[in-house]
Amino acid sequence: MGAGDGRPVGAGPADRADHPDVPDRTAVAPAQILASWSPRGESWMWSWADESILPELSRDARAVRDRAEARGYGALAAPALGADVETASALAAIAVRVTRATGFYRGPGARSDAIITFGPVTLTRADGSTRTVEVG
Fold first, then answer.
1. Residues 6+ apart with CB under 8 A from 54
2. Of all helices (H) and strands (E), which one includes residue 2?
3. Which one of 2, 4, 119, 132 has the minimum C-beta count within 10 Å?
4. Residues whose CB is less than 8 angstroms from the CB of residue 119 and which lie 6 or more positions away in sequence, other chains included
5. Three-class SS of residue 94?
6. How many helices, marked H, and strands, marked E, lie in the chain?
7. Ramachandran area for residue 40 (φ above 0: left; ψ -120 to 50: alpha; else beta)
């Protein structure tokens, strides 16, 4: 489950995202809303600054903010900032690194894209056996 693989990702219960079935397995991972990014306006807003996002879904964004504040990186702790496509990708990559996420997805919207991070991915085969992939 990666950004731009062309396959849709459907939202499951509150903090989960289910990937479409692959031949004999299903992938499920906890998800966080990291930010919203406006390609047209070239702007980025962290989810912790968006009142419409539940606090439990902005945990990764708060972790990035807290680390940025602790290390004196004011721009990363600002609620919103200018961001072209390269900057938005870099911000998402920084968040993946800081939070040890397994990846991120850019979900296109009418006016802005939702940037979503994923935690450990659990693969379940048709026979019920599972394997979990985590960032070490």
1. 14
2. none
3. 4
4. 29, 30, 31, 32, 101, 102, 134
5. helix
6. 3, 9
7. alpha
Cβ atoms of residues 31 and 106 within 8 Å: no
Question: Which residue has 């807003």 as its token pair?
Answer: 45
Q: What is the pLDDT of residue 23?
A: 67
- Residue 38 to residue 127: CA distance in whole angstroms: 42
Q: Does the CA dihedral 95-97-100-102 come out positive or negative?
A: positive
Token readout for 86 is 């390269």
The Cα–Cα gap between 26 and 48 comes to 30
Stretch 8-16: mean pLDDT: 45
Q: What share of the chain is helix, strand, coil (3-state, %, to 5)?
A: 30, 35, 40
Place of tokens 């998402």: 92
**pLDDT, average across residues 75-104:** 95
Q: How far apart are CA 108 and CA 77, in angstroms?
A: 24
pLDDT (0 to 100) of residue 24: 73
Q: How far apart are CA 119 and CA 32, in angstroms?
A: 8
The pTM of this model reads: 0.80
What are the b/e assignments for 40-64, b being 16+ CB within 10 Å? eeebbbbbbbbeebeeebbbbbbbb
